[in-house]
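# step 3/5: fold
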Amino acid sequence: MKVYPCIYAACFCLLLFVSCDSSDNKNESRVLSQSEGTAEPLAPAPEFKEIPVAGMPDAMVDIYSPTGNEDFEPGKVLFSVNIRNYPLGKERPFILSLNGATPKAHSTPSFQMELDKGTYRAVTFLLDEQGLALKEYGNFSERYFSVGGAELSEDHLQPSLLLHLPRDQQQFAEGEPILIDFIYLGGDPELDGLAIQVELGDYTLRTQKVEALSLSGIPKGNYDLFIRLLNSETGQPIPGNYTSISRNIRVE
């Protein structure tokens, strides 16, 4: 008969433990529910997006001066281009870049530039209505020349890149899309066995398409942008003075 009190006591302790555990679970569920209700939604991860460029296959630009492999005395060098089927003017200039530097807009087909001794690569290209580089054959032109008798390199024998946007040291507001606009000077990256790699901080895109890109959602900070030509099979960089370009930008 003494066994029953012990059994009653054990049952009472068990019920007390279950009641406490259930209460703790309810409290925990309540805390989790409150935390979930106050959590801020996560910002979308940054990603590259292609920007369609309106084609103008009939628009043509050709560099008349300098001619290929021409040599000039140091000083003023004449630049002259022939443009057809394109509304040249202040609203739709053509763009010139020397030696891969940030391109500059010109609204007249002839002008002079002061140049020192050295070798130069001049690239001109036309713009669509958005201000992005037209990328079809004939929309851009390239010439290699020298000043002061400098010896030309072999860069003109291989494909190369030209970066239009962003400009070096360009600043962007936080949340503002970063436009990346480039030209491939060659034939077709895929047929040439090449790939184009775009790097901005921790974000990388490898592609064989020659398209303008947009990258949104980048946090505040300073960034180095790199665009490189790679062997599409091995991933190895292609050597050359104009197969890799870098720019520094800031997101504020």
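# step 4/5: annotate
The chain has one helix and 17 strands.
# step 5/5: archive (pending)
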